[in-house]
Amino acid sequence: MEQGIVFDIASKAAKASKEIAGLSGIEKDSILRDMAGSLRENMDGLQEANRMDLDAAAKNILSSAMIDRLRLDEGAIEKMALALEEIAGIPDPTGGIMGMQRRPNGLLVGKMRIPLGVVGMIYESRPNVTADVAGLCIKSGNAVVLRGGSEAFNSNRAIADILKQVLVLHGVQPDAIGFIPVTGHKAVMEMIVLDDYIDVIIPRGGEGLIRIVAENSRIPVLKHYKGVCHIFVDAAADLDMAYNICMNAKVQRPGVCNAMETLLVDKEIAQAFLPEMARRFVSAGVDLRGCERTCAILDNITKAEPQDWDKEYLDLVLAVRIVDNMEQAMDHIDRYGSDHTESIITQDYTKTMVFLRRVRSSTVMVNASTRFADGGEFGLGAEVGISTSRIHAYGPMGVEGLTIEKFVCFGDGQIRE
Amino acid sequence: MEQGIVFDIASKAAKASKEIAGLSGIEKDSILRDMAGSLRENMDGLQEANRMDLDAAAKNILSSAMIDRLRLDEGAIEKMALALEEIAGIPDPTGGIMGMQRRPNGLLVGKMRIPLGVVGMIYESRPNVTADVAGLCIKSGNAVVLRGGSEAFNSNRAIADILKQVLVLHGVQPDAIGFIPVTGHKAVMEMIVLDDYIDVIIPRGGEGLIRIVAENSRIPVLKHYKGVCHIFVDAAADLDMAYNICMNAKVQRPGVCNAMETLLVDKEIAQAFLPEMARRFVSAGVDLRGCERTCAILDNITKAEPQDWDKEYLDLVLAVRIVDNMEQAMDHIDRYGSDHTESIITQDYTKTMVFLRRVRSSTVMVNASTRFADGGEFGLGAEVGISTSRIHAYGPMGVEGLTIEKFVCFGDGQIRE
Predict the structure, then answer these.
(1) Are strands B143-147 and B403-414 parallel, antiparallel or unpaired?
(2) Which residue in A87, A190, A252, B168 has its CB near the most CB atoms, within 10 A?
């Protein structure tokens, strides 16, 4: 392989990772707080860099939603700074020893949580990811290699430069925050085979990008392709609760991965539940796509096509299916779901326990909105991303997801017989 | 991709994995005990199948060590049966809910341990791995796809057939134990890209095989290439303890991955420690390869070449290096180690704590033989393998390594504001 700039950045990050791993919690938190301060102090420079990205975005006629996500106004920069301060406030996830057991021969065996080493982050659009992920990696003692999207290139570079400068002021090798200063897929492809230097790849962005990364990476990938989240309204549901939760899950923020995309309704309750639910949805501007039985109950809604069942609309659109029972609802989720988040609305005790146990998604809920599937809402402090890869971390990933446990043993001369 | 027999077995295992995941602990343990009984009852058939492998091995002039590992005599079959009974005896790793916390809005959030889904096992030589891994997978609620080495093909198939038959008797889909009935690397290459059906690949065997798997797999791989384990004898070591531990780590079973391959000695203690240590090693038949300073103290030993420092001898050979201090010992381990197991021998409190924290290997010990780095010795019940991949599981992997935690939430109508 040609040992170009990506190789250079990753191998330097691997070297620097040892220093980061050795910092005390106090040192790491002081760095994070100084980074927050430095972002605020460099408000003007950041906005200037961001202006270049915004101008290019306007020229390339990006959607207003995309331009919105790109924009670093004062509020957005303050939010980044606050996020770093919040990360500084959570407990150090590394260095503690857990589960120390005394073996019959007197050997004490336990586990110490340590950093993974080097986190490879591949992301699109939102420049705040640069600061968030760098902050989470430092907190967990990891180095990071950042490869942001081309549309936010100048903003990302400006943020990374500020953060690296803070490392320098603290006498820490700035290589611990590696920023890949080239765009284009070639850099991604080079990055994901550097398994001697990068320990995990976390891609965030469009499904296309994530699939390319997953298919070509020689490094373990933690990712989710999409969130096709379901709510199953059981025959024993409290109807008012069901209306509120379903509305919230679909309407409160439809463009995110933990919004509901398919509503499953037990046939026993469909006639009582669906008309009022549909009335509320329609008055909130939701476009419903119903199965045959749903269309027989509701007038004037679109008939769902087969491809509606695994669609992530990310919009005010909802697929609705009437099922014979919870069994069929779980089969539907199993077949069409994305292992992200599912919720059952019911007052039936046994059904809650069976649903919680049987549904294999990374978050399974009872009587709550799918919108809670989020690291912050779950109390993880902050979120690196959500994993539906059934390895290492499953569901919202906080700083603990950036660590691993090694075995530690205290002996007093034990030898093996 | 051509959808051949490997695809067929993996996709059927994925289907069957849902049934296995739903079994109660009592059912799983009853299956495991019946499997043990069935192996004992089929002693003759197993030995007949094994005879075919042994005959082929003799014809192919395999080493006597390899033929030994292949052999399924009565004792070896009884050991397999006992291992399955032992696995039946450990607690069910799945289904419990941990760390349930009440969020400010009243939502209860916790984690439930669940099976990974389908484990892909690629292994060489020892046919007992077939029964051990199938047993560990059933215990943890996983389906398994087994791809054993060609030299044990008939033995492996006979064992898998017996285990599948027990599943049938219990009314469980036998596809949960998938056995790939073709040899050759093509089957391996087909298996490791089936990321829609297999959740993790665990390769055990020679470094060459493992590298091919790691480089080509589209599925996360948990593996260790080799075990270059170090012991560092610090200036503050108890010399008698050091003699005993070093002897044990090198000599008790030199052919395994947790045996010591390099001895590092603090220069302050080298003159006092090395002559007696060398006398004991030489009288046990150990061939020493010393650094320059070591050769100045010990007569008649071979000078170490640069390539000795990262060699896994798996034999009565030991590299010996004198270092200036613990810092240099840790740098040596960092540079040449394999992230497997390292031990420090010292009575110095501060050094133990620094060594434990700073050395990044999957097992780090104080005053104990590296030979203890083993799932059984650590109390994990049984071992799937040892991972030096810095993801998911690090160090000896028991049944817990075959599980993942999903989030579960109990609400009473929570919606997100």
Answers:
(1) unpaired
(2) A87
